[in-house]
Amino acid sequence: MDRIFIDDTLITGEDFRHVIKSQRHIVGDKLEVVLNEELYLAEISEVSKNSFSVKLLEKIEEDTNSIKIYLFQGYIPKKKMEHVFKMNGMLGVEKFIPTITERCYEKRIEDFSNDRCYSILKDSAEVSKSIKIPTVSNNMEFKEAIEFSKTLDYSVILFEDENVNCIYDFLKDVDVTYPREVSIGIFVGPEGGFSEEEVVFAKDRGVKSIRLFRNILRTEYAAFSAISSILTYYERTKYES
């Protein structure tokens, strides 16, 4: 069943084009709608030339993810950054923080907290059947981002030269006992990775340095791999509890 995010029971614009024009839904069809972060079963009650209306039938109780991921993505070119938003938005990232580092792509620094990125994240949330659309913060300098990460329960920095700790060493020390809510910050470097000075700065402030695998991933895939590992570990502990 399709799921869409709405602000009102009268729906226009891109959602109208997707639901009525592309998906060919008609009056009487059922949809899942998210209104104010609450999930409902709804029915299309009326269709006009440029809009349609839904009737909320019942509220649906859904188990939410208690792992809150904050992704500090080293600044990369626009298309690659949007790919990061799209892929990791489907994994339920709470917030994306574009991070300016020593080796970041600086030809043109853009602000990603805009309507286009919101549309990408909204689509990812609908596809993955989330009940919350991830947010994107304003760009942060690396040191500022490290300070912000102190407000989270745990934070890690992915570093290809880390020879001791892998992601599963980190996860063994994380209390993800269901249904406890846990916030985790993940620092992913830009193309070229983090400098040793940045990693030392982060570690001195409580951020744990880890590697994913022996193979090195492109930056736009590293976060997806790390978050997938964390969520898989969480799901296992959830069903074992």
From TrEMBL:
Residues 11-57 form the Ribosomal RNA small subunit methyltransferase E PUA-like domain. It catalyses: uridine(1498) in 16S rRNA + S-adenosyl-L-methionine = N(3)-methyluridine(1498) in 16S rRNA + S-adenosyl-L-homocysteine + H(+). GO terms for cellular component: cytoplasm. The keyword Cytoplasm applies. Its main location: cytoplasm. NCBIfam families: RsmE family RNA methyltransferase. GO terms for biological process: rRNA base methylation. Pfam families: Methyltrans_RNA, PUA_4. PANTHER family: 16S RRNA (URACIL(1498)-N(3))-METHYLTRANSFERASE (PTHR30027:SF3), RIBOSOMAL RNA SMALL SUBUNIT METHYLTRANSFERASE E (PTHR30027). Its EC number is 2.1.1.193. Residues 65-230 form the Ribosomal RNA small subunit methyltransferase E methyltransferase domain. GO terms for molecular function: rRNA (uridine-N3-)-methyltransferase activity. Gene3D superfamilies: 3.40.1280.10. Specifically methylates the N3 position of the uracil ring of uridine 1498 (m3U1498) in 16S rRNA. Acts on the fully assembled 30S ribosomal subunit. This is Ribosomal RNA small subunit methyltransferase E. Belongs to the RNA methyltransferase RsmE family. Keywords: Cytoplasm, Methyltransferase, rRNA processing, S-adenosyl-L-methionine, Transferase. It comes from Ezakiella coagulans. It is an enzyme of class 2 (transferase). It is found in: Cytoplasm.
